[in-house]
C-alpha cells in the first residue's frame, strides 16, 4: 500500500537538502500541531492522538497506525514526546514529497534502528515490510531488495548492507532523472525541428508579399 494524503496541513512543510531535515520554522509549526493535539497539556501524545491525526491526514490503515506508533515510541514509554513527533512528521513529509529514498540515505542509521524492531543489529524481511509503506515500498519490492543486497545470505540486512541499498536508491533516482531530462530535451528539439520549416515558409511568404 502507498500512502495518499487527504489533507493540506503538511503542504507547506518540506525537507531541505542535503540533510533532508525540516527547517526551524517547520519545527515551530510541528510544535503548534503537537500542542493542538495535546489538549490535556501533558506534553505527550497517546496512541489515540496519533491514530486520529494519521487517519485525518492519510489513507493509512488502523493496524498500521498502531505499528507506526510502537515503532516511533523509541524509549518504549507508551507515549510519544515532541522529539518522536518530529520524526513522525518528517517521515510523512518525506513520503508526501516523494523524497523518502533521499531521507533514508541521509538518515540511514535512524531509519535502520527504526526498522530493527528487536535491536538485533539486522533487519528481517518482516520487519522491513511492517514499515515499507512509509517509504513507498510494497512487500514484493522489499523481497527483491533482500535478494539483491543480502550479501551475507543470512536472510537479513545488517547496517552496511542496508546502507548499500540506500545508496543504490539514490544512484537509481539520479539515473532516472537524467533519463527523463534527456527525453524532455529530445522532445523539445523534435518540436523545434518540426516548427522550423513552417516558420521559414512563413518568413519567405511575408517577404514575397512585402517585396514585389
TrEMBL record:
Keyword terms: Calcium, Membrane, Transmembrane, Transmembrane helix
Classification via InterPro entries: EF-hand-dom_pair, EF_Hand_1_Ca_BS, EF_hand_dom, EFCAB9
UniProt xrefs under Gene3D superfamilies: EF-hand (1.10.238.10)
All copies of domain EF-hand, residue ranges: 60-95, 103-138, 141-172
Residues spanning the membrane: 20-39
Keyword Calcium: yes
Gene Ontology CC terms, in alphabetical order: cytoplasm
Entries under PANTHER family matching the protein: EF-HAND CALCIUM-BINDING DOMAIN-CONTAINING PROTEIN 9
Name assigned to this protein: EF-hand domain-containing protein
Provenance organism: Adineta steineri
Classification lineage: Eukaryota, Metazoa, Spiralia, Gnathifera, Rotifera
